[in-house]
Amino acid sequence: MALCARLDELDYRTYVLLGDGECSEGSVWEAASLAGLNQLNNLIALVDVNRLGQSEPAPLGHNLDAFKDRFEAFGWRTEEIDGHDIDEILEVLAAVGLGKQPLVILAKTLKGAGISFIQDQEGWHGRALSKEEAARAIAELQPTAKSGVGHAIPSPTQLPPPKNDVGPYPPVNYKLGDMVATREAFGNALLRIGGADQRIVALDGDTKNSTYSEKFLKKFPARFTECYIAEQNMVGVATGFATRGKVPFASTFATFFTRAFDQIRVAGISQSNLKLVGSHVGVSIGEDGPSQMGLEDLAMMRTVAGSTVLYPSDAVSTEKLIDEMAAHKGICFLRTSRPKTAVLYKNDEPFPIGGAKVLRQADGDKVTVVAAGVTLNEALKAADSLKNEGIGITVIDAYSVKPLAKDIIRAAAQKTNNVILTVEDHYAEGGIGDAVAGELSADGIRVHKLAVYELPRSGKPQELLAKYGIDAQAIVNKVKSLR
Amino acid sequence: MALCARLDELDYRTYVLLGDGECSEGSVWEAASLAGLNQLNNLIALVDVNRLGQSEPAPLGHNLDAFKDRFEAFGWRTEEIDGHDIDEILEVLAAVGLGKQPLVILAKTLKGAGISFIQDQEGWHGRALSKEEAARAIAELQPTAKSGVGHAIPSPTQLPPPKNDVGPYPPVNYKLGDMVATREAFGNALLRIGGADQRIVALDGDTKNSTYSEKFLKKFPARFTECYIAEQNMVGVATGFATRGKVPFASTFATFFTRAFDQIRVAGISQSNLKLVGSHVGVSIGEDGPSQMGLEDLAMMRTVAGSTVLYPSDAVSTEKLIDEMAAHKGICFLRTSRPKTAVLYKNDEPFPIGGAKVLRQADGDKVTVVAAGVTLNEALKAADSLKNEGIGITVIDAYSVKPLAKDIIRAAAQKTNNVILTVEDHYAEGGIGDAVAGELSADGIRVHKLAVYELPRSGKPQELLAKYGIDAQAIVNKVKSLR
């Protein structure tokens, strides 16, 4: 939010309330570091140093100097105050904005201050008072309670509106059959719509040359935030931009978003308008090995409250889905692939959220194959190969994993003897197979799954697709094995 | 690992290699903080400060003083060296163990040092050299290459074995019908087996009075590590203990493990022997609201490579499953509930990983209800209620969510017209319903799901189970609605 004030040239200030125990979280230091580097003198943190955690004293106790040293090392100006003294708080706040550093106010407090049987004592975290205890506490607090008179809080200044203009988006422009990685199409999409849609900002975690978000940076540097290798804070910063009406696209390798699952989950609870794009999914990334492979991202993102999960297979659908994400309110995740894949769709093909495309279908098809991303391309190859043997299969591009186009998929399955085969470059748990089975098994559809069932190793992309049983040949074999 | 050396009274040292870009990650500062607090002078970190990230220069460049200030503020001793000077590295390492602080060696280096066209330049991260470039690079490096003679690395001392004795576990002891929360049974289990199994250590993130791991702390304080509110590092520390042959039980609220998803994922890749116990799952925690409710943990933990996911419904099964976890090699997750639930099983009932219990079954049952945790108790209530109306249901305790007891569940379903109803206190995506549908829909089983389908709010536990459609009445209604 403080970065957004800079972008919109607005003079509001952003306040952050922190607990002392909470300062053990690394995400606090990710944020502190980026704020220091960006010299955000419009950002004020207030740490309630009350000495007590939930289950025992917090690690630094009332040692305000330890907090001071840490924040100063991360580029902040510090002020130590008595957190119970309103005059002191106001005096410090009056000096906000001085210098080039963010300000942290270290407020020494006592938990339960002024109540003799609670003050500075353990065992009261998250515990409600009995009626008698409450009466006693109020009686103790009443005589020392300070009047609010003379402490009027000034109203916020009416701010001019932020720069959030939106015009019509330029059209998508590819040729059928062109080889373009969906991750590069994501970069192209941001570049294409960035001029028309002033709400769009981009963020990356030092992977912008791999995710292709650098295309946006080069054209719109003021609207790009390099968050360095700190994904928790990247999602936090993106959520901040969203609260100011921006449409933040945060990108990194899909699997690195696992670092920020809690931030994403809480953004879900806050119904934030967050857009996440994760690249390098599945074994098809090849040589870099399992630590870099997104094989859990669909499971993670599907289970976020109110999320939309998208998985395009070609450049056109990627660009169209980025447009959809920008228009849709709520958390959206789009997973992109590393290898180049052929453009399958015409430039005017629509890709609504919740849709699916039936790419192959004929009377007498044996099974409906549901795939997305690289496995959709494998499914199309399998369809060609099986056709030569006289076996027909229906092939569906399930680009919208959540919400799933269950009506389209169910209708297709009903024409293939109620049998579906899902194929995905993701672990077997929580991905496309589970989504389809979870939605359609109640209708009597039989769902067979091909997915990555073991910890993969490094190798060439096509070798790995074969080894883990999700390539065209594996699809051919599985289709033939079905009765 | 450094903490484990203390515990086992061994004098080995633990070395950590860090990149400068990586130091943007908050998890580094979580670890730095705990190491400083514990005065781990047997821990040495070496930061390769080469100035360059993947996509642009790292945020602190060659500013070694900035790293020095940060590590010193977190309680570390620092040494700045020329990272290309082996003699200087050895000199600094000779002084390891002095003082009471962990040591960080800040090594100034140049990426691609000694190769004129690469040294200190951007654009070479993760890029392979062409044959010609490689030949040129070797030719440039050869003349300045230093001999290894005189730099013999001393062999590690042969260490006495760590203290990892295991004796027989004492028996479990509850009475049928007693009301005990599964989270408390977890604490009881650690306490019961902690004396017999010296491998067991426990860790918590300042929630030990809620997860009940404090029972272990009180009896075995030397084997408990308070990690404070820093879940990423807690999982990292637990993984370190596991590498030394310990069986680390790390506990916090289930949903707070989302903070550490990346650490858990990477522990999965490392095939670590990690044991995680997450409490306060689902809407049944009640008033604390959605930020504290574990509603995504089954999806997250199922998708971890090689994981085991357990979800007990009563105190006996909880204790037996903790025994199973301690005996099983690999990552295990057990989710516990906040409310007290009745003891359902006798003390000698076995609970093997991969099993399930058929609790109600009769000829003519209409549907097989698969549940676990609080919803199993709701399913039993529903069975009683439906019985009064002449409708029989089979009820299965699916305490092993992964691996799922698919043979037991399939066999039961086949006796109820191939119809299953799953009921779970978890979001609809990636949990028990998806697991059962994903495993059994291929066999022609129809799986209907009851789960939490919207962002929940705060309320009384039983009110929330009703509002989100996973209580006994919802089960009764759903069973009646099935044709």
Short synopsis of the structure:
Chain A is α/β, with parallel strands linked by helices. In chain A, 34% of the residues lie in helices and 19% in strands. In chain A, helix 10 links the parallel strand 8 and strand 9.
What descriptive keywords fit this protein?
7-stranded mixed beta sheet; 483 residues; homodimer; 17 helices; 5-stranded mixed beta sheet; alpha/beta
Task: Please explain how this structure is put together.
With 483 residues, chain A is an alpha/beta fold. Helices cover 34% and strands 19% of the residues of chain A. Chain A has helices at 2-8, 26-37, 64-73, 86-94, 131-141, 182-194, 208-211, 214-219, 231-243, 261-269, 297-302, 315-327, 374-388, 406-414, 432-440, 461-467, 472-481, and strands at residues 14-19, 43-49, 77-82, 103-108, 179-181, 200-204, 224-226, 247-253, 275-279, 308-310, 332-335, 340-342, 357-360, 367-371, 393-397, 400-402, 419-427, 446-452. The longest helix of chain A is centred in the C-terminal third of the chain and has 15 residues, at 374-388. Chain A is elongated, with a radius of gyration of 27 Å. The N and C termini of chain A lie far apart (58 Å). The interface between A and B is large, with 81 and 81 residues.
